[in-house]
Amino acid sequence: MTIIHATDIDCATIGDLGLEPLRTIWRERFGAAPSIRSPEILALMLAWRIQAAREGGLQGDLRRTIRRPASAPVATALTPGTRLTREWQGVRHEVVVEPDGRLRHRDELHLSLSQVARKITGSRWNGPRFFGLRAGEEGA
After folding, report:
1. What DSSP element (H or E) covers 66?
2. For residues 74 and 76, what is the distance between their CA atoms, to the nearest angstrom?
3. Which of 44, 67, 113, 131 has its CA 20 to 30 A from that of 101?
4. pLDDT per residue as tens digits for the range 58-81
């Protein structure tokens, strides 16, 4: 029987190992092994962790997207030139997305729709909700 150490392993050879050798490698590299009983799933997880350690893993924005619950709305990027309008207390407000991504409302630049909504209402609002950008929701 050949003993394989974590420093000798690469992603190509992981698939041939059983559950206990996979757990041993995991413990040597990353600490406590997950309590998974499937060698196939543990091999996939271990291969990903090794590759992520070598290549740098996921970028922050992708990691946040993956962690977001499936039911959570996905933020949509507003393209430059987009105009959003909203009537609030009888006054029509228009917001234009500038080429640099900032938002222009009445000759003032803002970084987020929430900042614009707060400027309009005087209280904290979720900007996309205020402007009716969320599916199934309209500004109140």
Report:
1. helix 60-67
2. 6
3. 67
4. 888 788 878 876 655 555 678 899
